[in-house]
Amino acid sequence: MQLRQVGFCPVPVWLCTPRVRIRQRVTLRREAGMVGVMSGLAQRANRYVIDEDDPRAPPQDVWDAMSPGERKWVIDNLPSEFEASEASPPEGDEHFDAKIGVRERLKKFFGRSGRSVYVGCELPIFYPGERMFAPDIMAVVDVSLHKRDSWIVAAEGRGIDFALEVIWSGRRRKDLVHNVERYAGLGIKEYFVFDLRRMRLTGYRLPDDAKGPSVYIPISTRAGMYPSQVLGMELFLDQDGLRFYHAGLPLPDSEELITRLESALNVVEKRVQAAEERAEEEAKRAEEEAAARVEVERRLAEALAELERIKKAQ
Fold first, then answer.
1. Tens digit of each residue's pLDDT (9 = 90 or more) over 255-264
2. Which domain holds residue 170?
């Protein structure tokens, strides 16, 4: 049987009558109309399309025009996890331990000091319309400290203040050249690069009079220390790696804190033991003195009794 293509459906030739063709056209128009309506609803519900291969936050003007529901949709759908090829490549234990150690020291210090400084580690950061990036360490001062899956500048109302990259075996040009230009253009106040393998530290800061995108100026050292105005402390390299100093004292890491606590505990235990020994000695001495008093009293009683017996014998 011969077939003829009508619309989207192959049908027998004998069915291709004008009436059938009209019905098919009406049906196709209805289907196309429904698709158009659904597409329009989807477009109105989600004005901004997130590219899975290059996810970005909306430009600021698009964000400003969004409703609260549309903004929430963007926040919920921007990814917080990426393949290794899409973010920084994994660099092994040395790189991981270095950045985690920095994060722990900073979080514990600011937690004790009472300053509201949010410290993140490889947190996806979305500036309006910009390609996502995730520094090894980022910090923002005077913000809420709740847990986050990402930092969306338009939603937070501000960009980040501090960024630190740790180089072990990764792309040096990215951290030492491209990021210097990009982070300054984004208005990030301070940027530090710690080359762990070569034990080098470099710091950059926006000029004090910078308003908006600018160019970094190198941070000068003072007695080998790099002052951070954002963190309110100094960065320094010693034989153990990158250290942070506040008021002239280094911020201890977890192992150092444990060692200090163990030492303090040993001192307390020794003091308790010495006090217990003194108490035992004093108790023993008190018992001996009590026994001596009893013996003296007994002998005195015997002497008085003997004296009384002699008097009666006379």
1. 554 444 445 5
2. 74-251
